[in-house]
Every structure is written in C-alpha cells, then in structure tokens.
Amino acid sequence: MAIINRIGDLAPDMAAWRQHLHSIPELSFDCPKTSAFIKARLEEIGVDAVHDGIAQTGIVAIIEGQGAGPTIGLRADFDALPIEEETGVEYASTHPGKMHACGHDGHTAMLLGAAKYLAETRNFAGKVALIFQPAEEAGGGGEVMVQEGIMDQFDIGEVYAIHNAPGKDFGKFHTRGGPIMAAADTFHIHVTGKGGHAARPYDSIDPVVAACAVVTALQTIVSRNHRPLEQLVISTTQIHTGTTDNVIPEDAYINGTVRTFNKDVQAMVVARMEQIVAGTAAAYGCEARLEFEFGYPPTVNDAGKAGFAAQVAAEVAGDAGVDADVEPVMGAEDFSYMLEARPGAYLMLGQGEGAGVHHPKYNFNDEIAPIGASFFARLVETAQPVR
Fold first, then answer.
1. Strands (E), the chain
2. Fewest CB within 10 A of the end CB: N or C in the chain?
C-alpha cells in the first residue's frame, strides 16, 4: 500500500473521529450532533469556507489550492440506520435503536483525513469541495443537496465517493464504467374484497387468496416478460391481512421492491404490474390498486472518470489492488443523483472479513481509513496538478 505518509500519521485521528461519530448515530436529515462535530473538525483543520445547513444538516467545505483551476467534489455520507447495535465495542451507540451499521461514520472520517492533508499541503490547482451528506439511507439527501444547487453554487465539475465493502479483500478498490448500482423502487398493492365469517367463504370475497395469487403472478414478470441478459429483481417483502382465524378480512396489503438498471425495463415492470394486479384481483372477484414509488435512480459512473479513478486507486493499492470492471450490484445509492448532475465515479473499498452492512454486528474497519483518504488526496492532486 502506497499510503501517503502524512495521512498514515493521521490514522489515530481518523479512528478517534470515526469512533466518536459511531457513538452518536443519527437518522436521515436529523443529524445535528453529527453535523456540528464535522463542522468543528473542518474549522480546526483550517478549510477556507464551511457552508452548513444544506439539506438541513449537510455541509460543503471548500479548500483552495494553488492558482486558478476547476473544482473537484468529494462526497461522504454520515447518516445511520434504525438498528439496535450488537457489536459490544466500547464506543457503541449511545442512542438506543440507532446504529452506524453501514460505515458512514468511516466514510466521514476518511474524508476528514483527506481534508486535513489537502488543507496542509495544497498541492493542487483550483478548489476541492468536500461534500458531507445526510439522509443516504432514507430521504435522498444527495438529491436534495443537488436540488439546493451545490453543483452550480460551488462550480463542481466532477464528483467522487467511496463506500466500504465488508467481505471483499482488505484495501482492494472496486469500480467500473457505467452502471454500478441499481435503481430502487417500491410498490404498494391494496387488495379489497368482502369480509365475512371464515366458515361461510361463499358469502365473502376473499382478498387473502387474491393477494397470494397476485404475489405469485408478479414473479412471471422476471421469468417471462424480460430478456434474461438484462438485470431485474422483483421481491415481495410484506403481506399484511386479517386479525384472527375465523374471519375473512376485507382487504390485504402487499409491499416490495423492484431493482433495475434500464429505464425501458423499469417502464415494462410498471406496465405489467398494473395489468397483473388489476387482472388477477378481478379474476378472484376483488379490486386492487397499485402504488408504484420511483426511488433512487441507478448509480452510473462516467466511463472516463471511472477509468481515471481506477488508475489513481492503483497508485495507492497497486495494480492487483484494483478491480476496474466489477460486476454491478442490485443495491442502491443516492450518490446516483450527484452522478446525474456531474460526471464522476463511485468506488467500493474492501475492508476484509466481518459482518455485512445493515447488520447489528457490523463495524467499520478503521485500518482502511488511511487507504481511502490517500485515494481522495491523490485523486485531487492528479486531477488538478499545479502548473
């Protein structure tokens, strides 16, 4: 690993920052303690400007380099998840029912480490915009920050982000040009029948049977309505109906997720779901209503920027430490909105074995922070060299 020496020296600081953030997890946009901690560290570091209150608790900090040049954006998310922590670490969550179970505390620490180095050395032209974002897990904070104008206000020309990857080789970067993560949409289906006594089903119109048939029929979209070479996932995750054993309920509720990379596939799924839901329910004498919520769009890397990021990553981790054509995953990420607004790339950084993200025993590996911070720093210095 070609970790920058000064950033290696900052490893204890990054670990301390990360572990403090881990102890105070906050959700969605409501992250005042987290935001205040980040702002205080940025002021200590000596960045040139701190703009807070973006997307409620988000921050954009500016570091000026040597002479005129473009502005490169580096993003870290900082919200947590509504999970009860089970790690047993001494710096575990002090907020019951909330936990940094996805490593956003580590992402923030890496970007703060890079910020300290860049503010000290300023071995680049133009500017760096450090983007600290709330509400990645829920609420689309990335979209809100873009809507509030950060790309234009700070003249950001390109933008990059890293996510930790438990289960992947320690210190190895993974990226690709094109789609790297999927769109995540949600569906709600309301089936209405006629309730009655369970001993006289002929006097009722049973929404339970209709709901089960709808769930089964939805699976034919994947198996019969789309090309198998195009990635698609439709998962039903909830069915709620009834209250007791001797009553046929009046209605049933079905909920789930759709994951796609292609807008044409997404449109096909919506059209087929509408037909299947209405037609299947009618076949059982029921009525049904589909609500389809479009969520985060696919995370699509600019091919050129992803290739450039992979080259920089290789300077830090070596050629063998970079997979520049990783297989896309069906998870979703609201950095997608920033990549829709500006070219850039999203990378994953392996942190070795351990519990996966969104698990109550997950914990960010502090040993990868100097690797990620060195990547951010080298990215800036390579993209915007001093002439």
1. 49-54, 58-64, 71-77, 127-133, 156-165, 173-174, 178-181, 183-192, 196-197, 232-241, 247-248, 251-260, 287-293, 299-301, 322-323, 344-350
2. C
Residue 59 has phi, psi (to 5 degrees) of: -135, 140
pLDDT in tens, 47-73: 999 999 999 999 999 999 999 999 999
- Report the alpha-carbon distance of residue 230 to residue 265 in Å, rounded: 8
Q: Which two tokens stand for residue 23?
A: 């102890």
Sheet holding 287-293, edge to edge: 232-241, 251-260, 183-192, 287-293
Indicate the SS3 state at residue 37. helix
155-193 confidence digits (pLDDT tens): 999 999 999 999 999 999 999 999 999 999 999 999 999
Sign of the C-alpha dihedral, residues 323, 325, 330, 333? Answer: positive
Where does the pLDDT of residue 1 fall: very low under 50, low under 70, confident under 90, or very high at 90 and above? confident
